[in-house]
Amino acid sequence: MKIYSWNVNGIRAVWTKGLFQKFIEEEQPDIVCLQETKSLQEQAEVELPGYTEFWNSAEKKGYSGTAIFTKTKPLSVVNGLPIKIDKQFGLEEDTYGDKTGNPNKEGRITTAEFDEFYLVTVYTPNSKGDLSRLQLRHKSWDPAFLTYCKILEQHKPVIFCGDLNVAHTEDDLANPKANIGKHGFTDEEREGFQKFLDAGFVDTFRMFTAGNGHYSWWTHWANARARNVGWRIDYFLVSESLKDKIVSAEIHTKVMGSDHCPVSIELNI
């Protein structure tokens, strides 16, 4: 089974250019998890024969959003975090004074249950250049999302993927020293990612590939993508019990259409 994750930075633009269709035709994924769709389902003209679509769009139009397109019909699909977790971790309106509201209303999580695992696609809030959302990330979002995944794991193994908006180690970005303490590479964000690993989840890409130079996002400035001056901020993490079933984990840098490229895993399942 091949599962892909892609922050498309606006599904309508990628579809209109024909790049999403090309991606599907060439990669033939069994399941595609999307982030930053920036669209309601009825606004997009996406038609993929053989796939069932599940969308979780933000209340704010043209913003955020996740989706799962799958050839295998899931047992169930749930959008967002449970209200209990939302309240437990203080994900209320303007909790941290950032005036951006509750991230649980931004279409950031879609969960599909299959026979042998839960699949969660997530678009983690960006802490922003001025770090105005850093405390929300550190104190609320990251622990809330980890708690949610561990609750799911009590029932069956979990795969979660998406744009986590953090480079975990210095190997995960081209210029680590220049970015220490900046959004996406703060101690708090890196600690949040490390807690996923400490809780038993496995960074699948690092099962197969070590070192730097492997990135999934590039700024539009200074020809960064052509020069491969990027960040690895898109991930697949899996429960420890699924580790031996992972055949491969890849970053598809040649797939164009977004400032991110897709990442994928293949499972023997």
Unreliable segments of 5+ consecutive residues: none
Radius of gyration over alpha carbons? 17 Å
Q: Characterize the biggest β-sheet.
A: 6 strands, mixed
CATH fold assignment: Deoxyribonuclease I, Chain A
The total count of helices amounts to 7
CATH architecture: 4-Layer Sandwich
SS-derived structural category: alpha+beta
> Rough shape?
globular
- Biggest sheet, spatial arrangement of strands: 3-4-2-1-12-11
Mean pLDDT: 96
Q: Strand fraction band?
A: 15-25%
Number of strands: 12
Under CATH at level 1, the class stands as Alpha Beta
Q: Overview of this structure, please?
A:
The chain has 269 residues and is an alpha+beta fold. The protein has a single domain, classed as 4-Layer Sandwich (Deoxyribonuclease I, Chain A), CATH 3.60.10.10. Helices cover 23% and strands 23% of the residues. The protein contains seven helices and twelve strands. It has a six-stranded mixed sheet with strand order 3-4-2-1-12-11. A six-stranded mixed sheet has the order 5-6-7-8-10-9. α4 (134-153) links the parallel β7 (118-123) and β8 (158-163). α4 (134-153) packs parallel to α6. The longest helix is centred in the middle third of the chain and has 20 residues, at 134-153. The radius of gyration is 17 Å and the shape is globular.
Can you tag this structure with a few keywords?
single chain, 269 residues, 23% strand, 23% helix, 12 strands, Deoxyribonuclease I, Chain A, alpha+beta
Topology (SSEs and partners):
Blueprint: E1 2-7, H1 11-16, H2 19-27, E2 31-35, E3 52-56, E4 66-70, E5 76-79, H3 83-88, E6 109-113, E7 118-123, H4 134-153, E8 158-163, H5 176-179, H6 187-198, E9 201-203, H7 205-208, E10 234-239, E11 246-251, E12 263-267
Parallel strand pairs: 1-2, 7-8
Antiparallel strand pairs: 1-12, 2-4, 3-4, 5-6, 6-7, 8-10, 9-10, 11-12
Helix pairs in contact: 4-6
